[in-house]
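Re-run with default settings, no changes from the original entry. Doing this only to confirm the output is reproducible before filing.
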Amino acid sequence: MIPPLISIFIILVLPLLENYFTIEKGGFMKYFFSLFLFGLLFLSGCASLVSSPTTTEPPAKTTSEITISPESEKLFHQAAKAYGKGEHTKALELADNAISLDKNNYKALSLKGIIIAFDISPDEGISYIEKSLSISPDYTQAFYDMAMAQKLGKYYDSSTTYFKKVIAVDPKNAWSYYGIATNYSDKRDKENTLKYLKSAIHYGGADVISAASAQEHFDWLRNDADFLHLLRP
């Protein structure tokens, strides 16, 4: 069996690496996975802000309304490329440089957060992704990053909430359904595990079946007739 952390990385994170290369300004990236990537297999306290009763905070800007300085944007893409190559230290340094040039670079903040969540601390990583979302509340990549960071911290309910935010934007996102299925499976909730796994298989086909067949998340269901029925080609 593949160790849980490695499997989480390969199945849910390699897809997210591709996301960073397919982000379009003002739009949401689509998730495209190759058989090569899949062949590797699926590895806050909240601060309360007190405002004056006579002050009304302006509505948050949408992603399309936020301008990132060109220099900072360029460094972000370099960071994403380095991360895609597995060069985490370099990616983190580039993301930090991007943020130093533009503190509102929500893309670099989210990327920094997911790197830290995997390499250092889920809770610390979550704080950066929260900052990204405070700047751009509809940045879908950050929803996925947050779902992964929360999952790493074993905050399964919160992780599921953010995977659902991705699905709200991209209803056919197989790996978000799959992420939810693994969350419920880790909680030993058979009904919801099978519900979301069925959707993941519907949109992801053989790749999802292969993942579910190898994942330790589903070991407790290996002899379950309903689970086995779902995995039939």
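Residues 21-59 have pLDDT under 50 and may be disordered. The radius of gyration is 18 Å.
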